[in-house]
Each structure stands twice: as C-alpha cells, then as structure tokens.
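Predict structure. Input: SnoaL-like domain-containing protein, 202 residues.
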Amino acid sequence: MTEPTELKDNKMTENAEASTRMRTIRTLLDGYASLSVPQLLEPLSHGFTHRVLPRSLGMPARDRESFALHAKGIFSLFEKFQLVPEAMFEDGRQRIVVIHARMEGTLKHNRGAWRNECVMIVRLSEDGTEVEEIGEFVDSAKAIEMRKRHAPTSFTGNTGTGAMEGLGLLGTMVLIAVAAGAVFAARGLFAWYARLGSFGGV
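Output follows.
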C-alpha cells in the first residue's frame, strides 16, 4: 500500500530536522574537543544559557559570555580533551537531545589523564542549527577534585564546594539510571522536562 504524499513529506521533513539537530550536536562536541573557546561558541545562540542541575541547588546560570569565561578556565588545564557519547536520545517535538558522555583528557604539566562523565540535556533552536540551552548533571567528586587540585587561581567556575557536593547526589543518581537502563532514563528525563515546560519556566 502506497503512503499518502503528505505523510511521506512529513516523514522527510522530520528526518531532515533530526539530521540538522544531530549535526549541531556533533559541532558542539567537536567544539569541546578543539579546546578553542571561539569554536565551542560557534553553535551557541546569542541567548544561550548553561545550567547546573537540579535548580534547587541555587547554582547561577551562565549566559554565553560567562560560559565562555568558564570554558576558557577549563580548557587552560588540558593538552587534549574530548566528550565521547555513550548514548544519545532525541525528542524532536521538544527539540531536546540527551547525551550521556565520557569526558576524557590529558592534563597539562604532566598531571596525567583525566576521566569523568556527565549527562547533558541540550535544547536546540526551531531549525536545529543553534544550541539554546544546556542543562548538565556532573560527577561532583571529580568536579571538586578539579577545583581543588587543578584549577588555576584565576579560574572562575562560579561553583562552591557545598553546592557541588549537593549536585553530586542527584548527578550520580542520574548516571546510575543511565547505566541501569539508558532508554528508560531518557524517557524519564523527557517526562521531567515536559512537566517543567522549559528550562527557564520555573
């Protein structure tokens, strides 16, 4: 049975939009690996926001400019760095891509290898060409280690140890959920964002 032309057109449009979103995600990941702040900023919208989750921690959101300063401080520590996706899930209706990734790098000044992981919830623009918002759960133990042992004195991470310890509890729970069942974790995150409405809606 032949599909109606309208249905075929809709599927083609959806596939094209998904492809555009995933190209933008790849550009974002490549930006992290480049250790170049200008390259990292390329796919970010002018109104971009970066948030450490959950909101109850009261962690300040970063706009595009403050995120650039934060990235500059982090990048200054590494000779090499990359975000390696373990799993990615996409919700085209809400323009959200969830990424569970390994962070792998080599620290400068013979400080050795760096291993970490995170879950990033990325919201994209309507056309999928720009990143509007990133919500990030991180490994708090590693974040505290980075801050205490490796961060330069000029580093402005906008995070306090107490807040990061609190972040680690939920961040670790999310990572465990991903490891135990990635598909169910992604569905749970999508449902959570559906209840919130948007990152900025609470």
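The CA atoms of residues 149 and 159 lie 15 Å apart.
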